[in-house]
Amino acid sequence: MRKIWIAFISVVVLSFIVLIWIGTEVYQTQPPIPEQVIIKETNEVVYTKADIQIGQNVWESIGGMEVGSIWGHGSYVAPDWTADWIHKEAVFMLEHWAQTDFKTAYNDLDVENMAALKARLIKDIKTNTFNPDNQTITISQIRWNAISANIKHYSSIFSDGHEQYAIPVGALTDAVKLEQLNAFLFWTSWAASTNRPEKDYTYTSNWPHEPLIDNLITDDSLMWSGLSIVLLLLFIGLLAYYYLRNHEKGEVLEKPNIDPLSKLQLVGSQRAVLKYFIVISLLIALQVILGVITVHYTVEGQAFFGFDLSSVLPYSITRTWHTQLAIFWIAATWLATGLFLAPMISGKEMKYQIFGINFLFVALIVIVLGSMLGEWLGVHQFLDLTTNFFFGHQGYEYMDLGRFWQIFLGIGLVLWVIMVGRHLVFAIRKNDESKHLIIILLISVMAIGMFFFSGLMYGENSTLPVINYWRWWLVHLWVEGFFEVFATVVIAFIFSRMKILSPKTAGRLSVASAAIFLAGGIIGTLHHLYYSGTPVQAIALGATFSALEVVPLTLMGFEIRENWNLLKSKDWIQKYKWPIFFFIAVAFWNFIGAGVFGFIINPPIALYYIQGLNTTAVHSHTALFGVYGMLGMGFIIICLRFYSDRVWQNTKLKRAFWLLNIGLIAMVVLSLLPIGIIQAYTSITKGYSYAREAELLYSPVVQTLKWMRMIGDIIFSAGIFYFCWFTIDETWYNFKRKNVT
């Protein structure tokens, strides 16, 4: 066991050293924000640093990543503003020169003249004119003319609305804010189209793919993509060898003939947790309703079956709430599970536990409703920019809630860590054979509380590369990293209490699994940052280690088989059939959603072309719901199974389980994946901006595929209905029980 702990500690320490080192490189080599942008021919100042920074705040206030995307991060209906800006700017300049020099359209020129104008364009746009001495950027007059045309175009989109982009009329009407927003969009395009000093690639490693300015995939991206695939195959082989050699070495237990938990002593704090499950069920239902509205905006723009809903609930709000509620209810489920199991782990109920549970419950409701209201007010421009940052819409996907609500949630997590942690410390002091299992559980609990605060490491005027760096600490490390460790250990603990695993074996497997997962997961955070204004080291390390994230997922078939065999081993285990079925679904979607669909977008060569397309939506739905959502549902069911004293009629759960999984498969196969493939082909062959344009997304074929999603959505929604019906009914029954032992 000592060797396994040494391996775990070494992995965590060394991985964070690397991740923090890359962070220092991000700070030092990020694209500069100039003090002034000057026209070369006239010395006229067209933008200042304040314009760009305030423009970023304006972009955040209208929904940020929920209204199109920047550098590939964000929603899918409106364009990627960076890619779109670059393409329109390039087309304007080429057409101007073609008309001026040859009196014809650019596409009508012969090959030699087209090449000459393209070379002139590349020199003008890609030459880095940032002067570090006076902190200025110089642009040509013709480029300013192109920028001016873009300003007019984008100002019209945000003030007059754009149905196909799901942007309502009057989204932003303040003339000064529109100018500042355009200044920020210009800067993002400048960084993505201007070569780094003494390099032949841009600050975003030539992303987006734009043939007109020779923004083509770099040699580094190609090389590290190839190496990541080689390493993937190598480590799959090594892990399979390790698994086959060691998986039978745990203590062999004779499974008991009766349920070891049938005499479980329940306490008052566990009853207090039950109300969480009712609220979580309501949040799940609301999230699905908002998802239906959001996806419908992709086919009807600003209406919901003819009803003008966007004036009240625009796409930017429904998508914000849809994604944010997913994080809220999944996290709340896992936190409630920790509170429910804590007395089982320690064997006693700590003082003030019920008060803490009730306080956190009220705080959860206040944070959810308060942040949603703030986001609505922010997007509708009722808040000034600073107030919006603290109470409104921060503008970053999965981190949309205002800073005040983040801090409030962080305080709640600290309280949760204390409430669960003191039970774990009490259990560790018993020094029994469960010690190692409880220690790794305590580590994951403390990490969940601590790493949430990474989302507070940037400020109102921090730059986009810095914000994205810390954002993925939260989204990837907090959710996909330490919550995953927490979930693994909780399942191991439950199985050990059911005497399916010995506590000693469960502890050894949990620590080893955490070490294997985090070996790729911590540094693998960088695969989100390949093209976010980060240095090339992020591509090298992100590609290498994100491939390792997939390795343990390849063994999910063994986990599915073992859980399936478990159900057939003893009659009493049938009592836990549906929680185990949900855990089996988690293993399946871990392999498909996180593994297969995750690796589709992990290598740099893939992400270069398909970042921010519907292929990303495939991964996010199958991984976020398929893995974390199903796991949260499994936790709810097993907690209710521990608490309930009646025999379950499993019809609702059976329907919920199969409808959810069939619906999710149909959603992906009939709609999201085919659209993603069409977009990927367009991005590779024509350029990234074409893959995000309305001309493609509203073409007859893609529109048909969007409508096809209704099949999966209806099936999936029916599954949600049955799950929420079962959960609320069972929770209410148990909540009304007076005598519980």
Q: Could you please describe the fold and organization of this structure?
A:
With 741 residues, the chain is mostly helical. Among the domains are: 31-216, no CATH class; 217-249 and 529-740, Cytochrome C Oxidase, Chain A, CATH 1.20.210.10. Helix content is 69%, strand content 2%. The chain contains 24 helices and six strands. Strand 1 and strand 2 (45-48) form a beta hairpin. InterPro entries: Cyt_c_oxase-like_su1_sf, Cyt_C_Oxase_1, NorB_cytochrome_c-like. The chain crosses the membrane at residues 5-24, 222-244, 273-299, 319-342, 354-373, 404-425, 437-458, 470-495, 507-530, 536-558, 578-601, 621-644, 656-681, 707-728.
Oligomerization state? single chain
The CATH architecture category of the domain at 217-249 and 529-740 equals Up-down Bundle
DSSP summary: helix tally: 24
Strand content range:
under 5%
Output the radius of gyration.
Answer: 27 Å
Structural class: mainly alpha
The residue fraction in helices comes out at 55-70%
CATH homologous superfamily designation of the domain at 217-249 and 529-740: Cytochrome c oxidase-like, subunit I domain
The main β sheet shows up as: 4 strands, mixed
SS elements, strand count: 6
CATH class of the domain at 217-249 and 529-740, named Mainly Alpha
Question: In sequence order, what are the helices and strands, one letter per element?
Answer: HEEHEEHHEEHHHHHHHHHHHHHHHHHHHH
Contiguous runs where pLDDT drops below 50 for at least 5 residues: none
Distance between the termini: 36 Å
| Overall pLDDT level | 92
Per CATH, what is the topology of the domain at 217-249 and 529-740? Cytochrome C Oxidase, Chain A
Task: Please state the overall shape, judged from the principal axes of the Cα atoms.
Answer: globular
Strand order of the largest sheet: 2-1-6-5
